[in-house]
Amino acid sequence: MTATDVPSTCLPAEPGDVVAFDLRLWHASHGGSTDRHMCTVVYYANPKTEEELTALQNQSAGNVRIGIEKFKPKRRYLYSKDWVANTQGNADRQGWIDRLRQIGYFGTPGVVEA
After folding, report:
1. Is residue 63 part of a domain?
2. Mean pLDDT estimate for the chain
3. I need a surface site. Which of 24, 44, 68, 110 has the fewest CB within 10 A?
4. What φ, ψ does residue 90 adopt, rounded to 5°?
């Protein structure tokens, strides 16, 4: 099947453009170059139930694993030890660190520098 055979909408983008969408949308890119640079930011709802927490843990673990396996980034982790140590004592950062620890996110392989 060729790209033109797939029912779709093409969204042309140039370097520096921001493309935002719900991750439940089936999405892909086509025609990029070998020196393509991309930054992905994923926002999750703060889980309120055990079911939501389990879904978040499974989704985020899969995202980390796939990101490292498929995109082969130079850095093989999302957060450095220094960022998590928060030696500057940034209160906002510490709030995020505490919540990510509470939900078990830092236990996922590839999240924090080993």
Report:
1. yes
2. 86
3. 24
4. -65, 120
10 part of a folded domain: no
Distance from C-alpha of 59 to C-alpha of 100, rounded to nearest angstrom: 14
Give CA–CA dist 71/107, Å, rounded: 21
Q: What is the pLDDT of residue 52?
A: 93
SS3 56: helix
pLDDT of residue 60: 84
- The domain in which residue 90 lies consists of 49-114
Question: pLDDT by residue (tens digit) across 16-65?
Answer: 899 888 878 888 777 777 777 777 788 888 899 999 999 988 988 888 88
Q: How many CB atoms lie within 10 A of CB 60?
A: 19
Q: Domain total for the chain?
A: 1
DSSP 30: -
Residue written as token pair 């660190």: 97
User: Residue 35 domain-assigned?
Assistant: no
